[in-house]
Write the structure tokens for this entry.
Amino acid sequence: MRIPEGKYAWMVKIGERGQFVIPKEAREMFDLQPGNEILVLGDVKRGIAILPKALQKEYIAKIFSEMESNGEEASYE
């Protein structure tokens, strides 16, 4: 399988308390430091995405824009 340039995948194990460690290479790549906030998004069909704070506004804007174009309303629980 050929992986496109700039795309990465890592395997992690989820512990008994539901925690996992973000691999060192990923932490360095995205400059994630202890105490940083990350956004975890979930989609039943597409899975989970983890966004560093620097990318959150960009992706949230895309999500809401796509929802509006599809005639969907945002739902908060």
